[in-house]
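Reopening: structure tokens for the zinc ion complex, inputs below.
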Amino acid sequence: MTIFAEIRIYNTLSHSLEVFKPLYGKRVFMFVCGPTVYDYSHLGHARTYVFYDTLARFLRREGYSVFYLQNITDVDDKIVNRARKEGRHPLELAREFERHYHEDMEALNITSINLYARASDYLPEIFEQIEGLLRKGHAYITDTGVYFDITTFPDYGKLSGQKPEELRVHRIEPDPTKRNPGDFALWRIRPREEFGWESPWGYGRPGWHIEDTAITLKHFGKQYDIHGGAIELSFPHHEAEIAQAESFTGVKPFVKYWVHTGLLTVEGEKMSKSLGNFVTIRDALKRYDANVLRIFLLSRHYRSPIDFRWELVEQAKNSFDRIVNSYNNILEMDTVDEVGKEELSLIKNVETLREEFLGSMRDDVNTAQALADLFEIVRIVNMYSDDYDRITEEGKVRVISIYNELLDILGLRVGERGDMSMLNDLIAILIDVRSLLRKRKEYELADEIRARLREVGIELQDTPRGTKWRIKMK
Ligand SMILES: [Zn+2]
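Re-run output (same inputs, fresh job):
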């Protein structure tokens, strides 16, 4: 039986650190609020998406089977308004920015999402939930739409730590036909010339909160493990989701762990489209690669705010260069058969730091501390490669595989910069061709390959265990 190490994670719902225990064995259902696709995503969004990608990678590394679902908000006033200005169909505009969003995610090495769900594909589920909420007396119909009556749900406000009576008078979505200023829309009636759907309550569009619960109820059922998103979504968006889902299904809690990321700020203010202080992901990627941006975004604990400054991204670049150099140094080191005591102590220290790295990740996904642990590995590996120029093949493989394991959890790719993996592949091809030529007794051509490689600083060595290569520094 595998013993799972304990993971602790901060739950916004209980306002405390909790031991992570999924609802069903080792299966984890995770949903994260996705983009509203009316414009390019910026670094504030990148922070959220990079964090949940890292969380999913880490949970999978820990042996959990993670189903990571994200919605795409393709029905929204912002989309409709921009499309109207540009004389386009809202869904055409939405598809264009959805495509750009996927390009950005791929460029950031965000690969952990299993399924994307577009709001516009879930109208039947949305109708079913609204009907159910009306039937159970949690919602009411007015001339402008269908609204959720927050006085029918006593837990409203629990997630964001607010008192229900305060929220009742807190104005959201101002509309004179609502019973309480804090009631939120499930369906909004719109003029027929606007984009929308026919519904039992009139022509219009769904409210924003109902899409998430319609999508997750369909894929995850009445309860699931993790709901993520930026902290500013906790109210009213996530609060409304809880009210809708628990009122509709009667099952509590709708979500076991509410996990929220802190803000990305610029000079103390939230990076946002409306303030105009944003840097798009694609513009940032023109200056720095994904590894550097990920290190910058993961260099603070996910719940702490992170202030964006180009100097900090430049520091992250230097940090990543140190990782690449250390990785390549050990990879290029000559091998010996006999293991020395310095190597034994190196391996022991790297193994210990690997445990510390995993321990930091298990401690509320502390990527800031995990990065510090990784840089400690870099430091001791560099110390070793400064003092010694030999390591056993086994020692080399152990250090490289620990590097690969930890870098993969953080979504970092060394091969992308130093491009050692591609170099490895290319030289392996040349070595294969050369040995084929030797078998055919075409020694002249085989020697030509060896000589030409030597000219560019790559030396081939024929050993009883096959041909090896190393980089010969000039
Ligand atoms: Zn959402």
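The pocket of zinc ion is lined by residues 33, 212, 229, 237 (CB under 6 Å). The chain has three domains: 8-287, 318-415, 421-471. Marking as resolved unless the reporter disagrees.
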